[in-house]
C-alpha cells in the first residue's frame, strides 16, 4: 500500500535546517507501515490525499499519563457517584461512565488521544506486582502503543541492598531483572524511600533524611538508581517524583535531588508540583526561575510540567505519604490509601482546582512559567500528570496558551488577582512555534525514551502521521486533526473512527538480554530469598513472558528504550 500526503507543510525539526514555517509545502510518502523516500520516477500512489492548507507531523508521544493499573481502578471505584454509575440501568440522560472527563475507561482514553493525534502513551508508575494488570488494561487502549515505567526505590529488597552498601554491579542486576520481568521501558522512583518510611509512622521525609529502619536517605537512593539506569543502558533517565510534593518551600528538595544524582541523567516529573517557595503574604510563591537556573547549570536534567487545569479531577499517586496529607483537601470528602505488597503505596484523593483560589491559580501560572522559561523545548515536556493536574484532553488548550501571548494574558486576568500579581507570567513574551510544539510532543519524547522508530517524519520510521488543518486558533487546530495514520493505516478522520487496527498495538519494553548486564545464579538466588521474606509470592511470578504478553494480556512486545552505544557518559 503506497500512500502520498500531498501539499502540506511537514513540521519536523529533524528534516531540514531552518524553521518549518519558512518551508514550502511538500509531499510525504509511506509504503505500508513505513515512511518512504519519494519515488525516483513518477508513481501513482494507491492512496493520494490532498492536504493543501494543512501541516503534517509525526504522531504525538505522551511520556507521562496514568492510564493503567490498580490506582486507576481504585479511583473509578471510589468515584462512582462522580460519574454515571457502572451499571446498565443509568439515570435518564446520564452518559456512560466510560465518558468521564477526567477518568475515562481504557477504550475512551484511546479515542481521545487519537482524536488529538497522539499514537504512543507511557504509564509512568507500574508497581512490579501489578504489572500484569496494568499491561492488560493498557492493551484495551486500542490503536495506541503503550509502555510502562517500573516503580522502584521504596521496595524492601532495593533498600536493603543500598543499606548493606552492596556493589553497584549487584544493584544494576536487580534493577535490570525487574525491568525485564515487568516488561517496562524505564524506571521511576516516587518520593524516594518516603513511601516505605511512611509505613514506619514517618510523616515528613527530605532528601537527606535517614530512613527510620535502615538509615538509607533519598539522596542515596537517587544516586544509586540513576547510576543503575544509566549503566544498564536504558535510554530514559531515572524518572523522579521528588520528595515533598506540593509542600511550600519544596524547591530546596528539588534542587537537592538534582545534586544527589551526581551528574547522571535524571528526569524530574510533574515539576510544577515541586517548584514552590515560601515568599509573600501567603507563604507560597513560584520558584520556577530557580529550577530553570539549575537546569542551565545541569545539562543532565529534563522535566515534564504537570500543568494543572481548573475543575474537578482526581489525584492518584504511589506517594502515600503526601496523599495522606492531602486527604483534608479532598473534594468530595473521601479517599483511599493502600499499601501494596511492601513495594510502594497508593493514594487516591479527589480534588477540584478553583480559578479564584490563590494557591491553585499560582500553580497554574507556575506550570506555564516553566514551559516558557526553559529555552530548549527538548528538555521540557507537555503533561498534566493525567489525571492529577487535570485531564490530558487539555493539551490543545495548553498549546494555545503557549503559542498565543494575548490568549495567555486574557487567561491570566481571569485567575486570582493576588496570584496573577505575584507571577512573572505577564512579562514573558515568548510564543511557541510549530517547531517548538513538534519538538516538545514528538521528537524530544522519542529521543529521551529511546524510541528510534518514531517521533519524526524521516524515511524508514514508522508511519504514525497526523495531518492538522492550519488555523489561527491553535486550540481548535490541535483538538481534532484532519487525519490520523497509525503504522500507515488511516484510523481517524475529523474525529471519526475509520479503521480498527487492533492487530498492531504494541507494548514498548526494554530488552536487556543482549546488553552487558550479566545475571549470576547466586545473585538471582539472593534476590529470590529477599523477595520471599518481604512479599507474598515468589519473585519469579513477576516475570511476564512474550507469549503471555500477546496471548493472555493482548499486546505485542516491541523492543525499545535502549540508549545508543555511541552516547557518552554525562556523569
UniProtKB/TrEMBL annotation:
Signal peptide: none annotated. Keywords: Oxidoreductase. It holds the Pfam family Amidohydro_3. Residues 49-483 form the Amidohydrolase domain. Its EC number is 1.2.7.12. GO terms for molecular function: formylmethanofuran dehydrogenase activity; hydrolase activity, acting on carbon-nitrogen (but not peptide) bonds. InterPro entries: Amidohydro_3, Formylmethanofuran_DH_asu, Metal-dep_hydrolase_composite, Metal_Hydrolase, Metallo-dep_Hydrolases_sf. PANTHER family: COLLAPSIN RESPONSE MEDIATOR PROTEIN (PTHR11647:SF1), HYDRANTOINASE/DIHYDROPYRIMIDINASE FAMILY MEMBER (PTHR11647). This is Formylmethanofuran dehydrogenase subunit A. It comes from Aporhodopirellula rubra.
